[in-house]
Amino acid sequence: MALLEFNNKGIYCQRADVYIDPWKKVKKALITHGHSDHARPGNLAYLATHDTAAIMRQRLGLAKRITAVNYGEKTMINGVQFSFHPAGHVLGSAQIRVAYKGEIWLASGDYKIQNDFVSQAFEPIKCHHYITESTFGLPFYDWEDQKEVFKEIGAWHDLNKSQGITSVMGAYSLGKAQRILKNLPDFIERVYTHGAIENINEVYRNQGVQFRKTIKIDESIKPKDLVGQFVISTPGTMSTSWMDRFENYQTASASGWMMTKAIRRRRSVDRGFILSDHADWKNLNYAIKESGASHIYVTHGFTKQYAKYLNEQGYNAIPVSSKYIGETPIPEAPE
Ligand SMILES: [Zn+2]
Ligand SMILES: [Zn+2]
Questions:
Q1: Which residues pair with 45 in a beta bridge?
Q2: Where are the chain's structural domains?
Q3: Residues 69/96, Cβ–Cβ less than 8 Å
Q4: Kind and range of the H or E element at 106?
Q5: Is the dihedral of CA 86, 92, 95, 96 positive or negative?
Q6: Could you tell me the distance, in angstroms and rounded to a whole number, from the CA of residue 35 to the centre of ligand 1?
Q7: Burial annotation 109-134 (CB, 10 A radius, 16+ → b, else e)
Q8: 253 and 273 in contact (C-beta within 8 Å)?
Q9: Distance separating the N- and C-terminal Cα atoms of the chain
Q10: Ligand 2 center to residue 284 CA distance, Å?
Q11: Rounded CA gap, 334 and 320, in Å?
Q12: Looking at the domain 5-141+278-319, which fold is it?
């Protein structure tokens, strides 16, 4: 029996009788990170990092069912050793290492290599069997340094501000929004936020992550307060009446999908900035090489294409179907 296998509920370790990121109800779930396609309600017991546990408590409740662990801490279940290691994707995100009698598997969840300064930075982990996502698993997806992207965002806002135009940026409430808050140029002193983003900001701050001041947009905020300001909202709100409060505004989206012109058009935003919390092509290849693994299992994304490429490079790779979504297409799935 393989140490990890893929069945209709998730990634299963039969020897320990636990699942990693299950999409159906199970007894015990180990969770890589707090995004809703990986951390789902309904399981009887959970194991996750402290920060992921805090995010899950905020989003799902479940306080009594979650056991929290530190990065690197070893948990033995039926003789199988489990540990969580930084994945650099969002706060608390982890690659889950599974070891039994010298055989090591790694379920890497979602990950990125570039340090975003709000998530614990990615650490390469050695293993024999590597489970990877492939959201951006085509050579076309090639991220530039985030410093450049934040410069472009700053320039966009600067121009808007000089004309009394509000800059409204659509960003995932968990991860992307906080990354933007942390890395925006300093001249943008405060940022107005949608309530869904503020809920997650509160978790990040409670967990000790620091970033600039934010003001939640509620009924007390008048349209004139927002003139020329920088606003972060969720992608889902950008086509709703929530936008009526802005008199003169431009919209933008920050996503890896902004590399694709057709998607940029479909999202009908004024500006697209290429900023992803997933690894691009070169970084997927880097992570797999660093792992030293020979067996690769390719989940959500360009699974077939990426597995084919890896096989051509001499790996033993197979595509695996799952219910994970990747970087959500628009509109953003309901929170
Ligand atoms: Zn994710
Ligand atoms: Zn994912």
A1: 28
A2: 5-141+278-319, 146-273
A3: no
A4: strand 103-107
A5: positive
A6: 5
A7: bbbbbbebebbbebebbebbbbbbbb
A8: yes
A9: 37
A10: 14
A11: 26
A12: Metallo-beta-lactamase; Chain A (3.60.15)
Report the DSSP beta bridge partners of residue 254.
273
Q: How confident is the model over 80-90, as pLDDT tens digits? A: 999 999 999 99
Phi, psi values for residue 317, rounded to 5° = -120, 140
Domain 146-273 has CATH 3.30.450.40: no
User: Is residue 45 within 8 Å of 27, Cβ to Cβ?
Assistant: yes
> What pLDDT digit, counting tens, does each position of 29-38 carry?
999 999 999 9
Calculate the alpha carbon distances from 181 to 107, 166, 192, 210, 230 in Å: 29, 16, 10, 9, 10
Closest-approaching ligand to the CA atom of 133: 2
Mean pLDDT of 298-321: 96
Report pTM: 0.95
Q: How far is the CA of 300 from the centre of ligand 2 (A)?
A: 7
Our CA angle for 314, 288, 172, nearest 5°, is 135
* Contact (Cβ atoms closer than 8 angstroms) between residue 256 and residue 274: yes
- Cα 315 to chain centroid, rounded: 26
CA separation for the pair 40, 255 (Å, rounded): 23
CA distance 330 to 178: 20
CA of 308 relative to ligand 1 center, distance in Å: 24
CA atoms of 176 and 32, how far apart (whole Å) = 17
**How much distance in Å is there from the Cα of 228 to the middle of ligand 2?**
35
Lowest-pLDDT range of 16-20, 256-260, 275-279, 331-335: 331-335
Ligand nearest to the CA of 20: 2
Domains 5-141+278-319 and 146-273 share a fold: no
